[in-house]
Amino acid sequence: MTWRPILRRRPDPERPVDAETAASLAARLDAAAHARLGRSLAIRHLDAGSCGGCEIELRALNGAVYDLERYGLRFVDSPRHADVLLVTGPLTHNLTEALEQAYTAMPEPKFVVAVGDCAVDGGVFKGSYAVVGGLGTTLPVDLLISGCPPTPERILAGLRALLEANARSRMVSSR
Amino acid sequence: MIEPCAPWPRHVLSPEDWVRLGESSTRSLLALWADTVQVYALFREASNEILFVSTNVVEGAYPALSPAFPLAAWFERMVRDLWGHGALGGTDERPWLDHGRWPRTVPMALRPGSPSAPESPEFLPLDDETLDQVPLGPVRPGITPAAHLRLTVSGETIVRAEARLGYTHKGTLSLIRGKSARAAARFAARLVGEATVAHSIAFARATEAALGVEIPPRAAALRDLMAHIERTLATADDDTAEEALRRAANIAFGHRLMMDCVVPGGVAANIAPGGTEALQQALDEPVPDLPEGPVSVSLPNESGEGIGHASGPHGDIWHWLRLDHGQIASAFLCDPGWARWPELEAALTAIPLDDLLTTNKRFELPTSGVDL
To answer: Alpha carbon of B174 to those of A131, A169, B196, B331: distances in Å?
Structure first.
């Protein structure tokens, strides 16, 4: 392949860039970067007494069909690396301390998501001596995803809404 | 004395005869549980026959079976935590389900006790000062159920693995008490999500045995089909195939996990139009022809005692219940986890620490079934 003559021609002497245009472009780029790079959330799942039904659908999100990672969402192992604490189960008394420790270990800003009827309000286990009943009793919950268990589409829709809100809030805070 | 229980009558034993159960070395323990006045045990004989026995609790105690049957130890700890009956001469007296955090102790007893103080779990003592302990859980890496593993390691080798469960205890047995079988089936369906169909079938069979009810052939065939789908889902190693089958199950039965689709007396609903074709495609095998007829029968409000069995994705499931005029007076739901978790402990022993995750993954045990 040969270079066309036009590409080999020397450019005209450079003129100075317009400072105003550069500044406004930089501002737009900054906002776009925040909007783009803000579109990523690390999720730590925590079983607060789940039967395992919600976990089946969470694992499906990780699979090739739903492929959570293409949206910038991913599961991480440590709460210290997480932006989102995703909780399943009616919150048993035996797990309240583990839940509080995981929440405390997470860096700010952090989101709490309740997945499944149990995590929303205790579900069928409401009123049992062994459950606190609903994540909201113990932590500030940002998003409730109901269902027994909620379908992967539903969980994904909820998490994407959170992603969107997170990206917007970062844009606002960067101004 | 023999009490009626279908399909296996219950032998009420004196404490002396109860202790003598351990003399047969070919007998294996399937489950041990209690209610407010008796302790029950289910065995499988060498001839594969089922033996169902019970003994009265005298002055808050009964003779322990754990010296003869090691598997009984976790059950005895569970019976003490829920009903307060002590196992005389038991091998392990540490708490199990009760972590000292409930608003009352012995919640299933006639007179529950006042709350105790939260206590950290007590593990087997370290008999060698050169060994180290690695605590793991209850929040473990990955999308895993809550459980604690205490590993004793010598260098890079695990010399002892001890599981501490009970974190996901939801008080299922107390919620079941006093409900109708239809209402209680929702709790059986939510004991273990991965085995919701199998647990629902075992629970329904126990109810039907107690009431002497025969379900229609179409209901039985639909149950078999659902159980087959559930086992296929549990062993699927390809997540696109699993997802296809879950979608087909949703078309056929209205739920991706088929939760609440099996009910005492039959199945909740007929297979939806187009369901057979969807399943056939997703299963990649022909779906057997279903007999015509109704899919459920109504349950009489009668009394009785029954045992139900089903094979789930993780092993044999045994449910027992006693109905009092259509309401559940007492019940126990036995998950295969009671036998499988001790197997995992054994499998984790004498392996390198690096193999922990793969061995754990091979078992993939739910905790909710054992935690009740």
So the answer is: 12, 46, 19, 9
Contact A49 B187 (CB under 8 A): no
Confirm or reject contact between B148 and chain A (CB < 8 A). Answer: no
- Is B319 in contact with B203 (CB distance < 8 Å)? yes
Q: What is the pLDDT of residue A12?
A: 61
Partner residue opposite B257 with nearest CB, options A53, A124, A131? A53
pLDDT tens, residue by residue, A90-148:
999 999 999 999 999 999 889 999 999 999 999 999 999 999 989 999 999 999 999 99
Chain B residue whose CA is closest to A56? B194
DSSP string, B98-165: --S-SSSBSTTSSSPBPP----PPP-PPPS-TT-EEEEE-SS-SSS----EEEEEEETTEEEEEEEE-
Specify the residue for token string 């009964």: B62
By the CB < 8 Å criterion, does B139 face chain A?
yes
Determine, for residues A102 and B143 on separate chains, whether the beta-carbon distance falls below 8 Å.
Answer: no
- Token code pair at residue A96: 């309240």
Using the beta-carbon criterion (under 8 Å), do A49 and B168 form an inter-chain contact? yes
User: Best interface-test mutation with B: which of A51, A54, A88, A153 has the largest number of B CBs within 10 A?
Assistant: A51
- Amino acid identity, position B122: E
Q: What values do phi and psi take at A6, rounded to 5? A: -60, -35
C-alpha distances out from residue B91 to B12, B162, B225, B332, Å: 24, 15, 42, 23
Tabulate helix, strand, coil % of chain B (nearest 5): 35, 25, 45
Mode of pairing for the β-strands spanning B266-267 and B262-263: antiparallel
* Residue B131: closest CA among B99, B164, B155: B155
Q: What is the pLDDT of residues B266-314, one digit of tens each?
A: 999 999 999 999 999 999 888 888 999 999 999 999 999 999 999 999 9
Asked if the Cβ–Cβ distance from A130 to B104 is below 8 Å, we say: no
Q: How many CB pairs under 8 A join A and B?
A: 133
What does the block give as tokens for B194? 């991965």
Q: pTM, whole model, 2 decimals?
A: 0.90
Give CA separation, A86 vs A105, A110, A158, B48, B85, in Å: 14, 11, 11, 45, 38
Contact B115, B102 (CB under 8 A): yes
CA distance A37 to chain B (A): 25
Which residue of A90, A96, A97 is in closest CB contact with B170? Answer: A90
Six token digits for residue A130: 């062994």
